[in-house]
Amino acid sequence: MSGRVVLITQEEGPRELPFPEPENTFVDFVESLRTGRPFGVPQEDAFRITEVVLKARASAEIGRPVRL
Description:
single chain, mainly alpha, two-stranded antiparallel ribbon
């Protein structure tokens, strides 16, 4: 990847947008453990995301909706 993003719209010509380097979530997590600063994803959100993903997988396996 070149690290560039170019937006082209009907109203404007091409314009380059900032494209920051992606964060390394694992490194960020380890640094939060070492320094004591809060991690970017709250624990409650991580648990809820995991629950949703596991239930989506279960739904796909059984072929019907499951309750969240």
